[in-house]
Amino acid sequence: MISAEEQIAASRHLATKSGQGVQRFLIGLAVVLTAVMIVAPLAYIFRRAFADGVGPYWAAITTPDTLHAIWLTVIVTIVVVPVNVAFGIAVAWVVARFRFPGRGLLMTLVEIPFSISPIIAGICYLLLYGRRGILGPFLQEHNITILFALPGIILVTMFVTAPFVAREVLPLMLAKGSEQEEAAVTLGAKGWQVFRYVTLPGIRWALLYGAVLCSARAVGEFGGVSVVSGRTRGQTNTLPLQVEQLFNDLNTGVAAFAAASTLTVIAIIALFAKALLQARAPHN
Amino acid sequence: MAIEIAGLRKSFARNEVLKGIDLEVRDGELIALLGPSGSGKTTLLRIIAGLDWPDYGKLEVDGTDWLAIAARDRRIGFVFQHYALFPHMTVRKNIAFGLTVRPQKTRPDAAAIAARVDELLQFLQIPHLADRLPGQLSGGQRQRVALGRALAIEPRVLLLDEPFGALDAAVRRDLRAWLRSVHDASGSTTIFVTHDQDEAFELADRVVIMGEGKIEQIGTADQIHDHPASPFVARFMGATIELPVTVTAGRASAPGIDAARLERRAFADGPATLFVRPGDLTPIADPAGLWRVKHVSSTGAVLRPVLSGPGGQEITVEVLRRAADTLTPGQTVLLRVEAGTLFPDTLSGRSGHSQPVPEQKPVPVKETQI
After folding, report:
1. How many angstroms away from the CA of A283 is the closest CA of chain B?
2. Domain count along chain A
3. Alpha-carbon A133 to chain mean position
4. Which residue from A187, A192, B144, B319 has the least number of CB within 10 angstroms?
5. Are B43 and B27 in contact (CB under 8 A)?
């Protein structure tokens, strides 16, 4: 799919050659496609959610199962994002500052979650930690529950969102080089001081940007989680799973759309945060 | 701080950039590491700083083994070519950095740090820039801040990597004199890297000339100018003309050349190469001369005759127009050598002969297979 921005850019280019007609047509096409494909479905979610007014909407959201799903999603995000921020910084630091055998392989491995379907990731975890999986007997012996519970959901979400921070921070660290850090070292700074006072301020906007993308993905993750969560209402349903189940219940009334609307609001907030950070970053 | 370096070697992957460096720097001395890019001078500086580590060799400062000390404990001031200022900190915070990161026991209190920074800002003549960010400064101002940041920790050794490399000519000259005064006032031992001869000779007590990972010569401007230690130094110092000669009883001679003004050298008889600067050859009109004037260009003060020699060699010399004989194309001349340096061909490798001046380098032709 071509984004609206690209279409507009392309139309500008064409305008220099073939006049205003083409330009107007392409702009019109972009607007119509954006409206039909993006704005209309989102608007429809809210329309359905508020079809019976604010009262039923609020009641649908505050049912125990949906509230639990929201709570679970928040917990997963709160755990996953900091871990992936730490992971992203570590990978970016290692790859940007050191030369070692397997460096290229590491850079490729970090991107793997992007190219693997989340469902496959979920199945991998199932095969690894499941009752008949490789680690299954060991886990049972020690009474450790991973699958169909919070740990499994967190692990899969972590896997799926792993690349977001690293791929924002790494190019910046490569471009900046290590001279500032070396300067700090010659001035007597210890390792953590170099990181705290020199490295971190240099990458903070890229880091936040990566964290926002990571959060948005963690909240919205469906495929992988649906495999490992067990999908028990009020226990292991995250918000996207809850939305799907409500919808499959043929509960075409308010409940599914109300739950979906909360996801949409989170996504829109993330989008604004992203735009804001993008605007800040170049001034740094 | 006296620095003693011996047998220093360093390779990156399979590329040996330092091939055995021996160097002694006296306490309080100002040393220039001069050489073309790729000669290993920056690597040597980074090893002294502790930012790189040698594969072999010794680095001692006042008798202490510095290879056993981490960079942050060496108390050196390092100034990077591109300054490497911290872009999110003001000038004041940049300069204070080395003091504020000290452990509590040795850290001066906030007032003392502020006083030290103020003193440095005055000394660097930039007190009005204290609250600016590096992004708001010119190149020369950034360089002053970088130096101030390095000086704040009262370094025992000051190291500068191409300190003026990124500045325009006028600012360079300005900062050159200023750096000398900074060095004299701080009393530190200073080593700086440059590829600019003027800069090296004007500023340094002694100049270390490096080429391809080795030290070619150490000396003052006059010593290196008059007595280059190797063909590399001779070429680097501007002796771009290389004439094939024969040494007999310590005297050089060649057809068409009068080398009687050269000192006698204690060389074995045999072929040698004479390295001469374009201004140290005088063409003298001589009907029997073996050099022929091909073409003469003039800058007003200086004439630049292009001469072709008996071996087909072509050289461009420089003579003061006021003092020169009239030179016309087609005329034959005798070449008198006023000054130059001889190296026996066992040392220089006669490779110099086939390509006496850079312009005449053979163009490599790519063979295409069909």
Report:
1. 10
2. 2
3. 28
4. A192
5. no
